[in-house]
Give the backbone structure.
Amino acid sequence: MLTWIIVILLVLWLLGYFGPSVYSGIPRSGNIVHVLLVIVVILIILRLLGIG
């Protein structure tokens, strides 16, 4: 379950980061992109520690 959350957040981060330059219909998300990246990193660390 935690793996799917990590994958989904990573895809959302990539879409928010690279999306506006590829397709102009995607709005710029600003700091939300970096918040998603921090959440993904925290979840990966928890996964490596075996918590979850």
Observations:
- The chain has two helices and no strands.
- The helical segments are 2-22, 32-49.
- The mean pLDDT is 79.
